[in-house]
Amino acid sequence: MDFSKLAPLLGRTLVIVAHPDDETITCGGLLQRMRDPCVVFATDGAPEDAHTWGRFGSRERSAAIREQEARARFLSRYGRRLYITGTPKAEECISASWRNTER
What SS3 state is found at 41? Predict the structure, then answer.
């Protein structure tokens, strides 16, 4: 496949997805080729239904586990750190990405 047409997407790219692991499902192949990706999750991925998170003891614990899994997955698959929205590094990444798109 010729990736030359995708070159603008392969530099500093902001990827916004709904839940942890959606980045892998939607654009995992491209993430491996990006030089400086920043992934932002719109939610923590922990369901509201106690039936689903019950085995973790609390919704908060389920969310923390989802975050740990996302960080480990991102580092092992893409060799980069993951910045979760709401953290200073994520805010810095998002700001820089928007600055790069302003013309």
Answer: strand
Virtual torsion, Cα 87, 91, 97, 101, nearest 10 deg: 150
Can you give the three-state secondary structure of 8-25, one letter per residue? HHCCEEEEEECCCCHHHH
**39 Cβ partners below 8 Å, 6+ apart?**
15, 16, 17, 23, 31, 74, 82, 83
pLDDT tens figures, 48-65 = 888 888 889 998 898 888
Q: Which residue has the tokens 């200073």?
A: 88
- On whether the CB atoms of residues 44 and 97 are closer than 8 A, the answer is no
* pTM higher than the cut 0.85: no
Nearest to 70 by CA among 21, 16, 32, 24: 21
The SS3 of residue 83 is: coil
* 70-83 tens-digit pLDDT: 888 878 877 666 66
